[in-house]
Amino acid sequence: MRVVVSVGGSVLVPTPEENRVEPYAAVIEGLAASGHEVAAVVGGGGVAREYIGAARDLGANEIELDQLGIAVTRLNARLLLAALDEPVAASTVAENYEGADEALHRGDIAVMGGVVPAQTTDAVAAALAEYVNADLLVYATSVPGVFTADPNEDPDAERHDELTAEQLVETVATMEMTAGASAPVDLLATKVIQRAGLETIVLDGSDPERVRRAVEAGEFDGTRVVGER
Ligand SMILES: Nc1ncnc2c1ncn2[C@@H]1O[C@H](COP(=O)(O)OP(=O)(O)OP(=O)(O)O)[C@@H](O)[C@H]1O
Ligand SMILES: O=c1ccn([C@@H]2O[C@H](COP(=O)(O)O)[C@@H](O)[C@H]2O)c(=O)[nH]1
């Protein structure tokens, strides 16, 4: 199976000292060893938000803030790359979709961070999945799926176990899109998922084993977005 795994920065690198980079690298290498073609897209997490917050206070505009965010996503991606064995992974973080596609064609694990302003790595993962014709797109994020409302704000929020792409678009349409904003999947990503008919899973990525089980066995506790073209 060809799979794109989007790993939230808050999941992979909650802080540079306390990170989940090694266990994630082990799961990704394990998937590759059992015959899957894997691309990982890494988010910026709390570190990106700290930089974005500091620069916002200094008067930077949203595009400049996005550029800072992209830089941090690429740093986090380099951290993941550092933990992956060189013979099985690309030697650099791909800065565009062609570079990631080339890595997959070489038989390497591809690793990306952000690409351009005004989106998040959620959209990068969806666009990459469309570009490389992935069979599955997995969002390993800080919440166990897409809810009716923000589960960190609303105790009555209920998880959607299954959504169509159209329903996913509607669910996230009103969410904020400023630099560093939080959403389980950003709006642009949902539109790409919809147009490409990508089979997509959103799950709690705090334990990377959940990603392995979702890919290997199709077992997960989260939200499935039904891929229909
Ligand atoms: N309807 C909703 N369903 C689920 N989560 C929601 C919803 N609305 C808002 N959220 C928020 O979306 C966030 C999703 O995770 P968040 O963007 O913080 O991190 P991530 O996906 O791990 O990536 P990164 O940290 O790299 O940005 C959560 O903080 C959650 O509070
Ligand atoms: O392609 C991209 C990716 C990211 N950004 C900016 O970086 C932050 C952090 O990324 P997350 O994926 O949310 O962790 C994001 O909020 C954007 O401001 C970007 O502009 N373009």
From TrEMBL:
Membrane spanning residue stretches: none
Keywords: ATP-binding, Cytoplasm, Kinase, Nucleotide-binding, Pyrimidine biosynthesis, Transferase
Domain of life: Archaea
Metabolic or biological pathway: Pyrimidine metabolism; CTP biosynthesis via de novo pathway; UDP from UMP (UMPK route): step 1/1
Reactions that this protein is recorded to catalyse: UMP + ATP = UDP + ADP
Recorded GO MF terms: ATP binding; UMP kinase activity
GO cellular component: cytoplasm
Pfam families in alphabetical order: AA_kinase
Any one GO BP annotation for this protein: 'de novo' CTP biosynthetic process
Amino-acid positions noted as binding UMP in the UniProt annotation, renumbered to this chain: G44, D66, V115, V116, P117, A118, Q119, T120, T121
EC number: 2.7.4.22
Record entry for activity regulation: Inhibited by UTP.
Sequence ranges assigned to domain Aspartate/glutamate/uridylate kinase in this UniProt record: 1-203
Subcellular location: Cytoplasm
Residues annotated for ATP binding in this entry: G9, S10, G45, R49, T141, F147, D150
InterPro entries cross-referenced by the UniProt entry: AceGlu_kinase-like_sf, Asp/Glu/Uridylate_kinase, Uridylate_kinase, Uridylate_kinase_arch/spir
PANTHER family, per the entry: URIDYLATE KINASE, URIDYLATE KINASE PUMPKIN, CHLOROPLASTIC
NCBIfam families hit by this protein: pyrH_arch
Family, similarity comment: Belongs to the UMP kinase family.
Assembly and binders: Homohexamer.
Biological role: Catalyzes the reversible phosphorylation of UMP to UDP.
The protein's name: Uridylate kinase
The species this protein was found in: Halosegnis marinus
Designated gene of the protein: pyrH
